[in-house]
Specification:
- This protein has 33 helices and 2 strands.
- A two-stranded antiparallel sheet has the order 1-2.
């Protein structure tokens, strides 16, 4: 480190060191730099730290800096920031603890041997101090990320677990993170710390971008806390600490939101808990959690399969089966004909096997089942038996059954058009009993049509059941546009904002890819009725909604602000105008048979409000006029 660039004002400049052509000299200089940096008080220290942050992000598997002592250097810098507030407030040193913790997390996210080096370098104690909130939520975010990586590996988890505070702090942070970010940053625009704004936007955006990124970072803070807790949940000795009712009940509501949809968040932790016998008891004892799991299982959530796994494990456990069976069985019956869901193959067969075990366990006296639940299980088992019988039936007989089902369906359409909704629903049920089990496309239409009848009859639970069955039968799964829309409306009626939002967004995506003229988006514009529902549910499912209700709305300078911040963030949906929708705001969104049935089914959709439907908008399900 004897030679530096002649025009560089900083002795021992890291960037000049990195230009050294001799590898041995460069390594010796970097080693010296890492050892000396925490002891220096020169200006401009944030520059090499930010450069190291970029390097760690770009090359997290490169061992060079690990071997030269970067972890020891970063740990020392965090301690310095915690203990020497005068140094922390000088120049731009306020950024250094954030970058140091981020660097530790980046270098430990892929390589177990790097994680071992980090633990030996003593990074855990200063990271715990950041996790405790000794600085701000911004540093908490990168601290929990780094600790989560260290907890992932078998060789370093004991070092994390030996610190008794980490699990408790992570649980508290998971429950309070959204409120912390809202009240400490999002709510008061004129009080935002400048270095927070710079880190969030990299100096590239204004207030709106700061708010968007704050929501994303708040979600990450919560999700990374849950990921750290999840590492503890694999060990049964930590489950009593995790499985406290006040924490468990909040888990289903902890989701990544639209800003962090790749994280399983609360449902991922619940799945880990339910996988273990010691965890299933507390979950089964909380009816609110079972209700939430049922809602997620009958949704288009990316983590639907995790909720299904939880329900299956709870049902298979003799100690929890009797507590959940009456709520869980109706949901699993709706899902019994699903084929593949993500990497889960033959998921429907697994569901049927578990349901069959329930019947058998009742026969052996191990559990009791209500008559209604038993009837539902027997119905699905009979359907499976019916499918086997149909495989041996002559094709002519199957064609006769299919034709008979078509006739009854047409009678249902006629009743629907005349306003006899209840009669139409009965006819669709009759048609389903006649329709061959292997005629999946036709059964999709019948279930979807019956779902619409239940919507008009203000029976949202039954509508969700039928729409879910249609979506399970459809190929690909969860991609039948009209059933998505009907379930979105039904979930809206029940106040299930997140589930309604996900179905509505997926409905719009399906419309954008559809060749059906009734479904395709006109001029790539979102239909008016879908736009309204999405806006409504985005506000209702907003990550900061609970915090905003508790602490009040967002305040700009000299301005009381609006309670719900995302109102200005909905511009991406503001693409449809009234002129794009025909029939006084009602779009013609029919049900195509897209199978052997030759008559198109069409439906004029209303606004997603039962009040509008009740007041007589002419909602059509029937095919074209004769």
């Amino acid at each position: 480190m004897d030679k530096v660039s002649s025009d560089c004002p900083y002795p021992g400049c890291f960037f000049c060191v990195m230009k050294e052509g001799n590898p041995s000299k460069r390594r010796a200089s970097v080693l010296k730099f890492f050892r000396e940096l925490p002891c220096q008080d020169d200006d401009g220290q944030v520059l090499p730290i930010s450069g190291l942050w970029n390097t760690a992000m770009a090359h997290p598997n490169d061992p060079e800096f690990i071997e030269l002592g970067i972890f020891e250097c970063m740990a020392a810098l965090i301690w310095k920031g915690l203990k020497n507030r005068r140094w922390l407030s000088h120049d731009q040193n306020i950024y250094i603890p954030y970058y140091a913790a981020h660097i530790i997390g980046s270098y430990t996210m892929n390589m177990e041997e790097f994680a071992e080096s980090a633990v030996h370098a003593g990074v855990i104690p200063p990271l715990v101090e950041l996790l405790r909130g000794r600085l701000t939520w911004v540093e908490q975010r990168v601290a929990v990320r780094a600790l989560g990586h260290l907890a992932t590996y078998a060789s370093t988890f004991p070092a994390i677990a030996s610190n008794g505070e980490i699990l408790e702090l992570s649980i508290q942070l998971a429950m309070s993170s959204l409120e912390i970010v809202y009240s400490h940053f999002y709510q008061y625009v004129d009080r935002r710390l400048s270095y927070h704004c710079d880190l969030l936007t990299r100096g590239m955006g204004g207030v709106e971008m700061e708010s968007r990124k704050a929501e994303e970072w708040a979600s990450q803070l919560q999700c990374w806390s849950l990921q750290l807790i999840n590492c503890f949940a694999f060990k049964h000795e930590f489950l009593p600490t995790i499985c406290k009712p006040e924490f468990l009940i909040k888990l289903p509501g902890m989701w990544g939101g639209l800003v962090n949809e790749n994280s399983p968040a609360g449902i991922g932790l619940l799945r880990t808990i339910c996988h273990q016998k010691l965890g299933r008891g507390p979950v089964a004892s909380c009816p609110g959690i079972i209700d939430a799991l049922c809602n997620i299982a009958r949704s288009s959530d990316d983590w639907q399969y995790m909720a299904i796994d939880c329900l299956l494990w709870l049902l298979q456990d003799p100690n929890t089966c009797h507590k959940v069976i009456d709520k869980v069985v109706p949901v699993l019956v709706d899902l019994a004909e699903i084929t593949t869901l993500g990497d889960h193959k033959k998921l429907g067969d697994s569901i049927v096997s578990v349901l069959q075990e329930c019947i058998q366990s009742q026969g052996s006296g191990r559990s009791s089942i209500s008559s209604r639940t038993k009837e539902q299980i027997e119905d699905i088992l009979n359907s499976k038996q019916r499918l086997k019988w149909e495989k041996n039936m002559p094709k002519e007989d199957l064609h006769i059954k299919q034709a008979a089902a078509l006739v009854v369906k047409l009678e249902g359409n006629s009743l629907f058009s005349s306003g006899n909704i209840s009669g139409a629903a009965s006819k669709y049920s009759e048609a389903l009993s006649l329709c061959p089990m292997r005629s999946r496309k036709e059964r999709v239409v019948l279930y979807s049509n019956r779902a619409q009848c239940h919507l008009l009859l203000q029976q949202p639970l039954t509508a969700i059941s039928d729409a879910t069955r249609a979506l399970c039968l459809h190929k690909p799964v969860n991609r039948h546009a009209k059933s998505l829309w009907r379930r979105a409306q039904a979930n809206d009626m029940l106040g299930l904002a997140k589930e309604s939002l996900l179905d509505a967004i997926l409905f719009i995506n399906e419309c954008s890819q559809s060749n059906d003229p009734d479904l395709s988006l006109r001029q790539n514009k979102v239909p008016d009725y879908a736009e309204r529902l999405v806006k409504k549910q985005m506000r209702a499912a907003w990550l900061f909604r609970e915090a905003a209700v508790k602490h009040g709305g967002v305040h700009n300078q000299g301005d009381g602000g609006d309670m719900y911040g995302p109102e200005t963030d909905d511009s991406e949906w503001e693409t449809a105008s009234e002129s794009d929708i025909g029939n006084d705001g009602r779009d013609d969104m029919g049900d195509d048979d897209d199978g052997d049935w030759n008559n198109d089914e069409r439906k004029d959709y209303d606004k997603p409000s039962m009040k509008d439907i009740k007041h007589g908008y002419n909602v059509q399900l029937a095919e074209e006029e004769p």
